[in-house]
Amino acid sequence: MRFALFGLLILIGNHLYGQGQPALHGTVTANGGEVPFVSVAVLHTHLGTRTDSLGRFHFQQLSPGTYTLQFSGVGYITQKKEVTVAANAPTTLNVDLQEDVSRLDEVVVTGTMREVTKMNSPIPVEVYSPTFFMKNQTPNIFESLSMVNGVQPQVNCNVCNTGDIHINGLEGPYTMILIDGMPIVSSLSTVYGLAGIPNSLVKRMEIVKGPASTLYGSEAVGGVINIITKDPQTAPKLQVDAFGTSIGEYNLDVSGSRQWKFASSLVGVNAFDYWQKRDINHDNFTDATLQRRISVFNKWRFNRPSAKNASIAGRYIYENRWGGELQWTPAYRGSNVYYGESIHTERVEVLGNYEWNTVPGLQIDMSYNHHYQDSYYGVVKYAATQEVGFVQARWSKQLGHHDLLAGLPLRYQFYDDNTVGTTASDGANKPNTTVLPGIFVQDEIAITKRFTTLLGARYDRHNIHGNIYTPRLSFKYSPNANNTIRLTGGSGYRVVNLFTEDHAALTGARSVEILHDLKPEQSWNANLNYARNLILPNGFVSLDASLFYTYFNNKIVADYNTDPNKIIYDNLNGHAISKGLTFNADVALNNGLKFITGVTWMDVFRMETKNNEATKIPQQHAPRFSGTFTVSYQHAPSGLLFDLTGRVNGPMHLPVVPNDYRPEMSPWYALVNLQVTKTLNNNLEIYAGVKNLLNFKPKDPLLRPFDPFDQHIGEDNPYGYTFDTTYNYAPMQGMRGQLGVRWTVQ
Question: Taking the first listed entry, what is the main subcellular location of this protein, grouped into a coarse class (predicted)?
Fold first, then answer.
């Protein structure tokens, strides 16, 4: 309220100040028309204003002399003008701005593995910058993704708070996470791999919704999230971002870069600490896991005459998290005195890229990660090790109207744990080893200036499942630079590893049962996309709408309902479908207002056949309706930025047990956040806000929390309930305050 009053007083003061005779005035135009709400700054002073609704601006009481004025507006190229203010009469300065379409059309690489502008990409790609996620500052990318329409970070366990990323209603194992284009985060490490990446290291994030197995192979059935890190040659010398919340969460991101003649380096450190026991709903369980995490990232880029690009990066993560009964301490780890879920994680990642100058178009990508997890879920111990190695040779060449791309990927995965998943029939330990060589080719053909087609195909040879083929076909029609229609179709596949993907299998009292040898999932999809950019006199509008449809064979499903003590896995006897509509709008006005909104309607279900009868079973944790919004207002004179962000979820199906007293469907709910940022100078910002402004909290997230070891099942329990942690649809945290600071040295 104080910030709003302060901004109002400044506006009134500016208005009253402008009633006298101007020393300098003028009009800003573009394409023959006046441009309102353009920012006009007098450089090397504290003076600034905006043009009015008729494109006019004026400055009062400027001393005679020569000044440099800067004119900037959304959708226009920033322009500087030098003017001399006379002593005895008002000075007039009229400026004509040029449109800047490039600001509406970012460069993307994820859709086709080559740099292309967003509007020219035959594959729809959504692009998000760190500035967007800073409008609702969070300690990790997992939580930040809740701001993206059609992307849902889903917490799968109410005690340990592990989760995954859903795209268009499909569970986390269908989403591939890339860092700088390489599959370094997968399976066991998905939730941990997204933590500990400082916002200050991220250049941009690209999201492809829908199967992308033709280029990226298994796990890219639902979509791809590519986190692209900054170039050490252009990154700021120093960036610091630190914040704390009223419930005791503390996060620190620090990054720095340095350049030498032969190389440049970027180093980043992320530290997060939350060690407060809170129990808002009085069930004697922590509402959110206690966490301590440290992550160190280092990226080098080498300047070599023989290489167009040569880089290598490494990251180390350590995390200690636990949740459970309030009386639990590390001394009770693995015991049945008090229930606790304790997870210790260590992770090492290495990734690199080399692109030759002497062999144009040839690149080598490589990555390796080692992930170790030591966990207890109550008395159930889960210790797992995973290693993933990846190397890929890529070659691209433009021949006339053809942009050719070919690749030879090789992926190796080793996985071992202490469960039945890696136990042979004779009881001996049998780690899972996967060797997956492949080849892909792609041809993007510019048939005409407006019409482009893309053909792609991939072949993989799995050491267990044999030959796997995944084709793709795409058409793009652009009648002009600001309108694009895309039609894409193809197939995807997924090779499953249950124990690395489903922490629910290891929580509570449930055990795992696999009915048959699981076959790879196969999917066929179609996507129709329309994108349009509109440049207005007072800003711009970017629109994007998509229809999507995916059909699955051999879908692997988890049955939570047949036996409350088991999770039963099998290939589906039938098929599954994900279909829907998504719409995004990005509006930026020169008066400082900006709106980013998105809505998704979807229907995700499976048709299961039993006894020659087909039954439609909706997908859990997949709301038919969801929406996101960001409303921002920049008040330049005061240096204040107001951001209201939120997510709305409609009812979704939840994993209930037989005769469950809890609703099978979640209610409508909204998570709304408010943040105010004050720019003190070009290098320093402070921000304050309120999380979960509506103070929404889910009801009854745990079943029988008073008996977590199921020691009293027969007592006053007619339905035979057992302790369960999988009923979840929203974070169990109420309203809380936040205060932070950002400092940047270019």
Answer: membrane
